[in-house]
Automatic annotation (TrEMBL):
Source taxon at top rank: Bacteria
Name of this chain's protein: AsnC family protein
Any Pfam family the entry gives: AsnC_trans_reg
Species of the source: Goodfellowiella coeruleoviolacea
Signal peptide segment: none
Annotated TM spans: none
InterPro entries attached to this UniProt entry: Dimeric_a/b-barrel, Tscrpt_reg_AsnC/Lrp_C
Chain ranges of the Transcription regulator AsnC/Lrp ligand binding domain: 6-76
Gene3D superfamilies: 3.30.70.920
Amino acid sequence: MITAIVLIQANTDSLPETAQAIADIEGVTEVYSCAGDVDLIAVVRVAAHEDLAALVPGRISKVPGVLDTDTHIAFRSYSRRDTEAAFAIGLDNDA
């Protein structure tokens, strides 16, 4: 599974509608509105790089209100949840 973070510049007049339209696209797992240099951040999870290549320019960039995108592919996750899950593999709680 390929995870990518897509930074999105959007028209602020239609930010909620733009964010919801992006969230409704298959492969987009989360969309956040935020303060700072970008208006929206989308988390995308797809099976192959070809899917990502079709999703960002072919779907996300064409949503009304999207002005620009900047995509970052994640190599590895370092979240606490992922670390705890890795160490829990094979553990039997009944022991």
